[in-house]
Amino acid sequence: MALCSAFCPRISTNFRPKPFSSFPSKPLLSLSFKVFSSQATDASSQDKFSGRVGFLGLGIMGSPMAQNLIKAGCDVIVWNRTKSKCDPLISLGAKYSSSPEEVAANCDVTFAMLADPESAIDVACGKNGAVSGMGPGKGYVDVSTVDVATSKLINEHIKARGALFLEAPVSGSKKPAEDGQLIFLTAGDRSLYELVSPLLDILGKSRFYLGEVGNGAAMKLVVNMIMGSMMASFSEGILLSKKVGLDPSVLVEVVSQGAISAPMYSLKGPSMVKSQYPTAFPLKHQQKDLRLALGLAESVSQSTPIAAAANELYKVAKSYGLSDEDFSAVIEALKAKSQDTA
């Protein structure tokens, strides 16, 4: 329990942003915002953190993330709509508060990992929401996957209380969350990003600072749009290989060793061949992210026909009762379609 307490001095009532001189004065890339890719190599990661940390939302991602903070020695207060999900963390040393407002009021920094935009807004801004417990010297880090408008709305409510806001959606599913190997796509108050970098380094393997609020949400939706489309195409390939008399297990090996190799294929493929879908990233969340990504594309008049087709497939899979299965179960929707046309 010494690691986090040794991580940094106690937070004062006001955040003390680090000078920006440790970063290049010019953009690293010719984009409309600066991108900082960092692990434990930039100056901010050398800072230390020993303040109290709140964690709201203890689902398939939030629970292992909060657990890693506790194991690192952090002083953590947790909340979840279903209190029983807090019990394993309480047994590890976490404290419990009965509302998001109480968590935020008693913590220096509060993390939130919620399932969708509606939940993120309700937990932050609803009755007894975290916003009511925020104030100067506090920070709110939303690691949920939401749309740009939702992130900006929560930011406005947090800033109105004199607190700081950072959106930090994560790339990675259950296993990376358990192993502390997530990728954080952050945007918002730079001083808060620097302050919580040591915590992000406990939870993840890399972090990107993307500038103003909305850029983190947009990046996450683009990433998950690509992932959902890849899984749909991979599913088609598995079924086609089997239909023409090939061994789909061999297909998985071939794909995993070629130019189109991706960890997702070698990780999910063997189970998919066996029609097994242990949930690491629920299918309903993948479909939600595709829906939000299509909305993002529509807002800038960008055509996304492949993602749109994939989204329809995930919607069919949901209609077959596969919402809580892993998103790789989308292959079952293709199987059903094949049977319908046989």
Automatic annotation (TrEMBL):
Residues 214-333 form the 3-hydroxyisobutyrate dehydrogenase-like NAD-binding domain. The active site is at K220. InterPro entries: 3-OH-isobutyrate_DH-rel_CS, 6-PGluconate_DH-like_C_sf, 6PGD_dom2, 6PGDH_NADP-bd, HIBADH-like_NADP-bd, HIBADH-related, HIBADH-related_NP60_sf, NAD(P)-bd_dom_sf. Catalyzes the NADPH-dependent reduction of glyoxylate to glycolate as well as succinic semialdehyde (SSA) to gamma-hydroxybutyrate in vitro. May function in redox homeostasis and play a role in oxidative stress tolerance by detoxifying glyoxylate and SSA generated in glycolate metabolism and GABA metabolism, respectively. One of its GO terms (molecular function) is glyoxylate reductase (NADPH) activity. Gene3D superfamilies: N-(1-d-carboxylethyl)-l-norvaline Dehydrogenase, domain 2, NAD(P)-binding Rossmann-like Domain. This is Glyoxylate/succinic semialdehyde reductase 2, chloroplastic. Belongs to the HIBADH-related family. NP60 subfamily. Pfam families: NAD_binding_11, NAD_binding_2. Residues 52-211 form the 6-phosphogluconate dehydrogenase NADP-binding domain. It catalyses: glycolate + NADP(+) = glyoxylate + NADPH + H(+); 4-hydroxybutanoate + NADP(+) = succinate semialdehyde + NADPH + H(+). One of its GO terms (cellular component) is chloroplast. Keywords: NAD, NADP, Oxidoreductase, Stress response.
